[in-house]
Amino acid sequence: MLDIVLTGLNHTTAPVSLREKLAFSKEESAAAIESLRQDPAVAEVMLFSTCNRVEVLMTAKDGAEALEAAKNYISRIKETPLSDFEPHLYTYHGHKAVRHLFRVASGLDSMVMGEPQILGQIKEAFRITVKMKASGVVLNRLFHRTFHVAKRVRTETGIGDSAVSISYAAIELAKKIFGDLENRKVLLVGAGEMAELAVEHLIRNKVGDIFVANRTFERGMELASRFSGQALRFEEIPSALETVDIIISSTGAPQVVIGKDMVKPVIKNRRNRSLFFIDIAVPRDIDPDINKLSNCYVYDIDDLKGVIDGNMENRMKEAIKAERIIDEAVIRFGRWLEGLNVVPTIVDLKEKMGAMARMELEKTLSSSLKHLPEKDALALSRMLDALVNKIVHDPIQFLKIKSSHRDETASLSLARQLFNLDESE
Amino acid sequence: MNSFPYIAAVFYVLSTVLYCIYLFKQKDVFQRAGFILMISGLIIHSLVILGEFIQLGYLPVLNLKNTLGIAAWSIAVVFILFRIKLNIKVMGIYAAPLVALTYIASLNIPEISAETPQIFKSAWLVIHVVMVFIGEAALAMACGAGALYLIQENAIKSKKRGFFYSRLPSLEQLDAAGYTSIVIGFTVFTVGLIVGLVYAKMVWHRFVGWDPKEIWSGITWLLYAALVHERIAVGWRGRRAAIMAIVGFALLLFSFLGVNFLLGGHHGGFTQ
Questions:
Q1: Is B237 within 8 Å of A176 when comparing Cβ atoms?
Q2: Are A324 and A108 in contact, with CB atoms under 8 Å apart?
Q3: How close does chain B come to A168, measured CA to CA in Å?
Q4: pTM: predicted TM-score of the whole model, two decimal places
Q5: For the segment B124-134, what is each residue's pLDDT rounded down to a tens digit?
Q6: Residue B79 to residue B142: CA distance in whole angstroms
């Protein structure tokens, strides 16, 4: 019987220094898969590597042997002694490996719970595996189920519904104010990683003109050209407030940069259109009293954090639903995998054929052959049993005979498909 | 034919129930089913009104029972049109109960048979009544959009995002929906009033009789006119526009019902 094994390390088990050392690029992944595939201990293999995890998933006759092969390969190719990374590894067999994969793909094992990128990364890794012809019946099925589960988790739970980063939370709020962000004008005051990230998200949401105001005009110009926007002098902020819709502020100024008195006069000229201030700076750049002006909204860093905390709580609640979906899928996959053995396949085959024969016999005996005495009916029944046994005899012999020349799981899977033995899915 | 009004009412109630479920569950199926039920209810309701119209020879707007029925019908028509044009699904959560309640109220008022004055048998009156009611229904939608706007704005301003925050559309959308409702409602309402004035001139040989309903309708009209004017002139929007839409509708309800109950006048028969 085939074992499914998975080993790897992630952000909770290994420090970043180790993760970056063991990370595989796309080419390296392909090479690793190629090399492990040729190892006699390994039947199927897949490797995925992201900034938060490196994992190897294999099917093998002897799981332990395959694991050794994989660990040794990593140690050799990454020039790291096994003892350096082995304590950080987790290893799962059978349905635990399946569950782990389902959880990872659904974002439940991610650093930010429910983040969606991981699914794309796993799809890419699987694409490489398929290209290297390193996947067979079990992995193909497993990944098919994985993508299905991840999709279910995404659509049936709210795990990815709400923003859990400052910049996303700001965008989410902007959408609740403006609806469509298309062609909204943005003013970036100051600079900073989080603010720039927010601007990038806004650009992805097709905002219109982007203005950048910086104390040092040169730095502003630099940033503006990065966002293909327009640099402004600090003194131009009041007049800019008449046209822009979203203001992201992140300066190192010790006092307020945009005060209530600066905003109040522009409201009339804006014809009361909404203004959304996102204040990422500490100490704050934007006078919190601006929030009291009509159609003006101010969110500072703590407000945004509050939003995120609320959203994170929601995700945790949704994660419980997701685990239930995964539990179901693990059980179902386990059932399929168990069926993929010689004995259950033979049993299923015999049962299906037998049931068909019995049903047809009963139908005939209760209609056109109603007059038949019981003895004759019994003889007919025995005849049908014999016929069924003859029909399934050759396929069963084929399944029973071990041959080193063919892939046993592939022929089992083919037999099950040929006779449609997995009807439930 | 006699059971038709009740079938329509059942459809409206079921639609309301589904919209409520939609509000909690946020599954699109419920909203779609609610919408289909609303359309079904409206079709049956329209047949009822058409039947009465043919049978009586004039639009049944003589008493409160009938006017409430027409009001429910108008709100349903306007909601369905808005739902198709503006695609704001959440409007159903106030439109559906409003239709259902108004119609049920109408069904529970006993029919009073009164002498039909000759003035009711005129196409002018039909146009006057239908346009005024359609206009008022659109203004009711504006009031609902305004209320939702205030809820959503409060959630964003106070930074306490409650039950409604994720369930309501953006402020901009609510504001736009409210404004569109007001412009359409105000226009149709105005035309309806003018038709009424012209008809008054025809039957009574004067435009205005200064009866309380006319006066209060005039006041309501002025308020909406001010709202539309301010929007165009200085861009009144958001919170203030939302509050005005609610105040305007309250005034409108008063001229529709309150005046008849409290003040009398030649429109008085409608609430008997």
A1: no
A2: no
A3: 15
A4: 0.73
A5: 888 888 898 99
A6: 11
